[in-house]
């Protein structure tokens, strides 16, 4: 006899989960209420205010997020594949460095990144922000763990017997077996970039170069809720589109072995 019978007391789990969901949804409900019932009209008014500065922030956020997303996803997945599959010197050292970098908070990295970007004269520019935000150690380490289990040494050896090189193994074996990995890394990288605040705050000075999170601070109490809902929509839409792939990727490691 177990301490807690999930079948007989399943209603307790359901009620608890619904209560937790309601608590988590409270900030979003408050945000939607503050945005007003006439959200589209309020958004149009806000977009035309201050010489269309909100639209400039939206464009900057889109350019920054999409560009950084492409670089971070490609570099992290390819880097994880190299660390997991290919024989390279100092692999363990690189893994330790990746893990340490992943654990360092972005607030501690802001000043060194500012110095580096300023040295190449890209301070207060979207390009400098893209370069500073494109490294994604969490995605690289997650890709390493995924490829370590999805591409065993026997499968890679069979590919090499068929004459496949390193790039061909990645393209013909790694990519088809890692569709859920691409979805997971893309989703978390997008959330991290779209909501990025610390680095844009440090690297950007001009209001015309700001992104939506910085603009949300400037609009606090004066249309900030409208911008908040606007920031919520892309993340929610991306999750709904990639939900199944994300779930497969999260639970894929639980059924191996």
Task: Report the strand count.
Answer: 0
Q: Report the mean per-residue pLDDT as an integer.
A: 82
CATH architecture of the largest domain: Orthogonal Bundle
Q: What characterizes the major β-sheet? A: none
Low-confidence stretches: 253-257
Straight-line distance between termini: 28 Å
**Backbone structural class:** mainly alpha
CATH superfamily of the largest domain: MetI-like
How would you sum up this structure in a few lines?
The chain contains 13 helices and no strands. The chain has 257 residues and is an all-alpha fold. Helix 3 runs parallel beside helix 6, helix 3 packs parallel to helix 7 and helix 12 packs antiparallel against helix 13.
Explained architecture:
The chain is mainly α. It folds into two domains: 1-35; 39-255, MetI-like fold (Orthogonal Bundle). Helix content is 75%, strand content 0%. It contains 13 helices and no strands. Helix 3 (53-85) packs antiparallel against helix 10. The two termini are 28 Å apart. Residues 253-257 have low confidence and may be disordered.
Provide the fold topology.
Layout: H1 10-35, H2 39-48, H3 53-85, H4 91-103, H5 106-119, H6 126-133, H7 137-150, H8 153-161, H9 166-174, H10 179-194, H11 198-203, H12 212-218, H13 224-252
Helix pairs in contact: 1-13, 3-6, 3-7, 3-10, 4-7, 7-10, 10-13, 12-13
Features:
mainly alpha, 2 domains, 257 residues, MetI-like fold, single chain, 0% strand, 13 helices
